[in-house]
UniProtKB/TrEMBL annotation:
Keywords for the protein's UniProt record, in alphabetical order: Fatty acid biosynthesis, Fatty acid metabolism, Lipid biosynthesis, Lipid metabolism, NADP, Oxidoreductase, Peroxisome, Phosphoprotein
Broad class of the protein's primary localization: other
UniProt organism field: Amycolatopsis thermophila
Signal peptide: none
UniProt protein name: Peroxisomal trans-2-enoyl-CoA reductase
Compartments in which it is found: Peroxisome
Amino acid sequence: MIAPRPTAQECKVLPAAALRDRLALVTGAGSGIGRAVALRLLELGASVVGVGRRAQRLAETAELAKTSRFRYQALDLRDRPAAAEFVAGLGGLDLLVNNAGGQFVAPAAEISRRGFDAVTDLNLTAQASLLLAARPGLAARGGRVVNLSLSAPDRGLPGHAHSAAARAGIAALTRSLARRWRAEDIRLFCLAPGTVLTAGAGEELPAGDLARIVARTPLGRDTTPGEVAEWVAALGSGAADAVSGALIEVDGGAGLVAAAALPG
Ligand SMILES: CCCCCCC/C=C/C(=O)SCCNC(=O)CCNC(=O)[C@H](O)C(C)(C)COP(=O)(O)OP(=O)(O)OC[C@H]1O[C@@H](n2cnc3c(N)ncnc32)[C@H](O)[C@@H]1OP(=O)(O)O
Ligand SMILES: NC(=O)C1=CN([C@@H]2O[C@H](COP(=O)(O)OP(=O)(O)OC[C@H]3O[C@@H](n4cnc5c(N)ncnc54)[C@H](OP(=O)(O)O)[C@@H]3O)[C@@H](O)[C@H]2O)C=CC1
């Protein structure tokens, strides 16, 4: 049985102004999930700073946002000094959404050292650096962090050995920092979507593979960008402050079953 896929409107369950007067930094805000998150946080009253490498994509998000509460900066997050300088310049920060990421699909034996480094750098080390740079700003405001991961990295993802290692790493880092930083009133969460049919996912895997992965998902459907955005907003709003350091899998139960067949 296929569970009903909510419309964009049906995903919106938080009260209006739930994030009024908050400042959020969203990485990868020029496309897919990051754009959906940025737009939803704005809708809920936050001011949002979006970053990504391509200014044109961020400008498109700004056009959709239609509010001066959105500003953006082109930035390669793997340039750690530049990223650290940028985040320090923001001052107090209520929410950091570590969303920028991605990988290529390849059998583990065909991933070169540089390929492994490129993926772990983007999905783990760059996220970790940004977190450390944002720490003073987050501590100043009792801020929250949502680190994006990928569902079930610890249960074996064919073709994703490099990414699974990085994604499991970010989940572990989230837990470690949640424990250490609670003294500074910073809360951290790790949010792990299953399959979200963004253009980025379409570049990573052929449509047929994505369809097979979705078909094997217990709920029989993909996760929508609107659902992910609402989870991020809820975690950022304080509604989930009884939770600390958790890995939350928003994946239609994909992590409960064996991964679909892909090379490697
Ligand atoms: C069962 C699994 C379920 C999964 C469901 C689907 C879930 C979807 C999840 C998503 O994350 S969707 C988001 C999708 N968007 C992306 O993934 C795009 C992002 N990808 C990239 O931007 C790049 O691939 C990268 C990971 C950042 C690497 O870019 P970079 O510019 O740093 O790399 P290069 O300089 O080009 O290459 C470095 C190194 O990597 C090797 N390499 C690159 N591509 C491949 C490949 N397809 N296969 C094998 N190796 C690759 C490249 O050859 C270089 O290594 P050397 O040759 O120099 O040794
Ligand atoms: N779609 C899915 O099924 C799933 C996605 N995810 C994760 O969710 C996140 C968003 O995915 P999605 O929206 O689908 O994919 P996209 O490819 O659309 O998003 C990735 C974003 O990251 C930005 N980015 C990539 N590299 C860098 C960099 N070095 N510096 C700054 N920004 C960078 C990209 O912008 P630019 O290229 O302009 O830099 C882009 O906006 C990713 O981390 C992804 O891995 C997790 C589970 C499932």
